[in-house]
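Hi there, hope your week has been kind to you so far. It would help a lot if you went through both lines with me. No rush at all, and the record is pasted right below:

***
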Amino acid sequence: QVQLVESGGGLVQAGGSLRLSCAASGRTASTRTMGWFRQAPGKEREFVGAVSWSTSRTYYADSVKDRFTIARDDAKNTVDLQMDNLKPEDTAVYSCAASYTYGARGPYQFDIWGQGTKVTVSS
């Protein structure tokens, strides 16, 4: 099966940038969608963005559109989340996930999850 490991989280000032990486290993042939989610303290997990494994088409939540970018790096076998113009409300644990479903968006559609990496944005 696929194993996912996130990295790159940390503390950053508002307006700054971070690049999160999701490294995939194991059997990846069944993956159809790679997604990023986040969960802030006391809040529900929410969709951030996703990329189609076959077409590289990306889609984002309105809250992060034009600020976050998902990029595949096939040489490193990673799916990265570039986060620019960070805001305090972006503070959360960010997780990547793999889905066997085309066009997956909801957490219930994702089959394998990483452990998450914490992002804290100070004001």
In short: The chain is about 0% helix and 50% strand. The two ends are 40 Å apart (CA to CA). The CA atoms of residues 5 and 23 lie 5 Å apart. The mean pLDDT is 94.
